[in-house]
Design brief:
The chain is mainly α and 79 residues long. The protein has a domain of 50 residues. The chain is built from three helices and no strands.
Length: 79
């Protein structure tokens, strides 16, 4: 029904669906590789700094502004 609705043969539909899935998988692999590389760079920078993860996290938290979160980012009452 979908192929007919698009005005193409079932073979064309299956070929297009396969190509779209392959493209999606390739993009996901690319994104995972990018995140892994960023993680390795961050780990190397941390090791080079000689600081512990806790010390570095505290530095980052200290740089955050001391303001109330936006209403949509606030926790519900009682949480």
């Amino acid at each position: 029904m979908l192929a007919a609705r698009e005005g193409i043969s079932i073979n064309q539909f299956v070929m297009l669906a396969t190509a779209e899935k392959a493209a999606l998988l390739n993009e996901q692999r690319r994104q995972i590789a990018m995140l892994e590389e960023r993680g390795h760079r961050a780990e190397a920078a941390l090791l080079a700094s000689g600081k512990t993860v806790q010390e570095r996290m505290q530095e980052l938290l200290n740089r955050a502004p001391d303001v109330e979160p936006e209403p949509e980012d606030q926790l519900p009452e009682g949480v």
